[in-house]
Amino acid sequence: MRSKFVAASAAGVFAVTASVFSCGVASADAYAGETYGDAAGALSGSGMTVVVGGRVGSELPTEKCIVTRSQKAPWIKGTNFQQVNNTMLLFLNCNSAVATAGKPGNSAASPEGQQALKDEQAYAWKSTTEDGAQWCAENMKAHPDWNASAWAGCPGT
To answer: Are 32 and 68 a contacting pair, CB within 8 Å?
Structure first.
């Protein structure tokens, strides 16, 4: 009996020591920066259940909110033999991409605000000019592997 206790104690001490002194590998959040609509679509397509874990702001419709982070839900469903955690929590920023009078969002001077302004200009160029429409047509054929955000503003998308 004593040897079982010693073995269990040693295993416990090793586990605690390993967790305290080991270095974790940081990983990027695969869904951060995507719209809720895109992230939820990808997760649902892979069999995950999506739940909004938190939300900041109310300027944007939920589908267009930006995911700031994601994490697996802390609960587990199922029996003892088939425990499953297939729920992903998405935390959203639903403020405007760039702040304007009376509407919260990123500062136009911040890196995020600068990128949002560039994205808005690119969208307008693609959707309102002949050169932009031509760029869309040429690049959609040449680069079918580009993600959907590259085509934002292109006619027919």
So the answer is: yes
Ordered DSSP codes for 58-114: SSS-GGGPEEEEEEE-S--BS-SSS-B--EEEEEEE-SEEE-BTTB-EE-TTSHHHH
Burial of 10 (0-12, 13-18, 19+ CB in 10 A): exposed
79's tokens: 């029996």
CA distance 40 to 36: 6
Report pLDDT digits (tens) over 42-99: 999 999 999 999 999 888 999 999 999 999 888 777 666 555 678 999 999 998 888 8
Contact 97, 57 (CB under 8 A): no
